[in-house]
Amino acid sequence: MNFYNEALGIKEELVSLRRYFHMNPELDFKLYNTSTKIKEFLDNEGIEYFDVAETGVCATIKGKDEGKTIGIRADMDALPLCDNKVCEYKSTKEGVMHACGHDAHMTIALGIAKLLNRHKDKFKGTIRMLFEPAEETTGGAQVMIKEGALENPNVDAIIGLHVSEDIPCGKIGVKYDVFNAASNPYKIVIKGQGGHGAHPESTIDPIVIGTTVVNAIQTIVSRELPPTDAGLITVGYFHGGTSQNIIPEEVSLGGIIRTVKAEHREYVKKRLVEVVDGIVKSMRGKAEITIEESYPCLYNDDKMVDIIKESAETVIGKDNIISLKAPSMGVESFAYFSNERPSAFYFLGTRNEEKGIIYPAHSTRFDIDENALAIGVAIQCEAALNFLNK
Questions:
Q1: Which of 184, 190, 211, 359 could cross-link 365 (Cys pair, CB 3.0–4.6 Å)?
Q2: Would the annotation count 362 as a binding residue?
Q3: The whole model's pTM is what?
């Protein structure tokens, strides 16, 4: 079987699907039209599926004999962003856009389902297609797992991809071990005592306390984590005050902690509380600190990455596989799957400078080179069969 040639044979269908999704984006778990389109495609291909996580979809393709099961994941939701591209497939929904490539991910997954269903007599075991809602918000993967998406039959391993505007079309990026960071959003409310700006001695200034906190928490990463290990504390907002001559009663600030090791994640959370509480108390204020649990680290399994590399060599050649050295500090909901089963996640190159496809994900002019669709389909199909048959 030459999966790349077969994928090229359905290229027009893939492009049409991707553009439909791009023109009709939806948010969070409210993916009713998107889910319907996916199920219509599966119905036409005679592929069984079931609903999960409100608008998520799990499809099942059974091979000729019993065996292992591999999951293939695609996220579905868009972003609350205006599409400022000039093209025939621009988003038709004001303020909503597929600015992160999930339209391509769904399209590739449907192409995989079509080809593997066509060749289900060529493999043993089962394919479980995982269409995930709410990747950009709270992580639909964790809901899917709770509702049994990895059961009946038990999924033994999972693969997934993400388009990359940094990697040229025709290439992929792979990495062993940690692929994406973990995240912990936090919020700090600092309470002081307000008063007249001309008489600071009669106040407890929460703005001064807050600025001291902002500077101090940066030293947790720079002076308490090994310089060889990535980590960061972002302060994304600082709110307080109403007038030039009033010292306010309180300020609020918040952001996100990002780490790439589980032990660092726990350490930085602990130290954030200790540092903030210590500074605020020493400056006569009071602090309320909230740290949320969000996406975990995405861990790649060495053997699964080997399968991706071997499969990609068949499709695009060894010279087009880029070994990534550092993890991404962005977060990825696929991490929930990778914490449950051996997994491999990689970047599919979609950049094309000649076509002007250079804009970053989560921007209003983001786009992909659609030639990458067939490449993604072929690599995933090869990887699935390599896992199941070898």
A1: 359
A2: yes
A3: 0.93
